[in-house]
Records
---
Amino acid sequence: MLWAGEPQESLREAQTALQSGDVGTAIRLYREFLKSYPNAAEIRSNLGAALVQDGQFAAAVTEYNMALQQLPNNLRVRMNLALAYYKLGRLPEAVEHLEVLHKLQPLELKPALLLADCMLEANRPAKAVEVLTPLREEYPDDHAVVYVLGMALMKDNRIPEAQALLDRILSDGESAEAAFLLGQSELLRNDLVAAAGHLARAVKLDPKMPWVHTLYGQALKTAGKVEEATVQFNEELKVNPYDFTANTEIALQFLQDGKPDEALSHITMALQVRPDDPGALYQRASIHLTQGLTGQARQELEQLIRDYPSFSEAHAALARVYYKLQRTADGDREAAEARRVREEAQKQLEEKRNSPPAKKQLR
């Protein structure tokens, strides 16, 4: 659609302002234009791009969604919408659009890498491997594909395959990615000293690499260096404010320090990434209980044990809530269920330890 006269001039001015870095003027001009032409989907998409440049991701999501309603087959608008959701830490919504893009263009690099990244953040490494494996064949020399696929394979406990990719990265010489994967490998083997050494090197080589501070923090915390670990988790949040593990760890630290409001802000961020994670949901209920929101904590814990009936800690916490509410019979029931679940888990563990190893078949 073409616009004559003043509207066309307004669009040119908006584009010129955007190219010169005057994002505020571009946003104002685009919005003025859209008052007269609200169905101009391409211009609304341009406004979304300007809002992204200005860091207004929530407003950009609104504009991109409106544009996509009129241009449902426009892959560029859908990709920009997915990116805006990603920047907001709203990964389930980002994944919804990235999966559409990946289905339409399975070998397109950008949506596949971003989708794999979302899958790793959501603790779904097998899905990340599924997305990236075809790209490994299509882009054999692409460093990002090799690195993210290697990390996904390690998280999925497919160590030999991950090691083959790690060897490929190591053959190119020292890099932050290689040090990160080496640290991840050593952490899986529970060699904390070696893991911390590699991850410290990765941090030094590229302090802005996603996940490196979190993994280093996990290694330090497992080694009993809690204060140093907390520093790393905070550093991760400077790079990626929505990192799930860093947010849950910082939330736990704030709760232990008697700062439930700060803890709640971090666990809320974590739940944007993994809204159904039982551990994060349990943390949120614990924070609400500390804040004196007993009724809300009760509802959250009741829902949690409905969804995860084998979550013994949730049963025990709900028992404490019931006792606080003077619902003694309900408290006794949940306390007994917590014991039963723990005993059953212990029994299964002992049976697994005592079971004879599977016999190897003769060839």
---
Amino acid sequence: MNIVEITADKKKYLPLLLLADEQESMIDRYLDRGTMFALEDGAVQAVCVVTDEGAGVLELKNIAVDPRFQRRGLGRALVAFLLERYAGAFQTLRAGTGDSPLTIPFYESCGFRRAYVVKNFFLDHYDKPIFECGRQLTHMVYLERPIPLEVSRP
């Protein structure tokens, strides 16, 4: 498994990015200003995009795992990579997601805690309703976790 930074032709990964953010115009709002990483093992299996939000906050804007490789710890590996990569450079890793039983438990298992909610985010910013687990997403839930000052190695 290898994680590499993607610096060119980020739109090439749009099919994967759309798994985590269903509207291309929303992805366009952060893709160019974000730093993108791909997890590869022969082929790209997962991607993520992070942005510097200022005040020591790094925001995980998109994290997506190819459905063929889900439930193998790849999303967790990307989060661990980000924590190591940005140790000492940022204080907080933030992620925004819908209030879904698919995503909230994932983030919480990675050490994130609920921080705040933006009411009606999905209603106000997306062209079509988004459903997960048969439930329409309405509010954006932001979760945060500290980024270590340094990486501790055994």
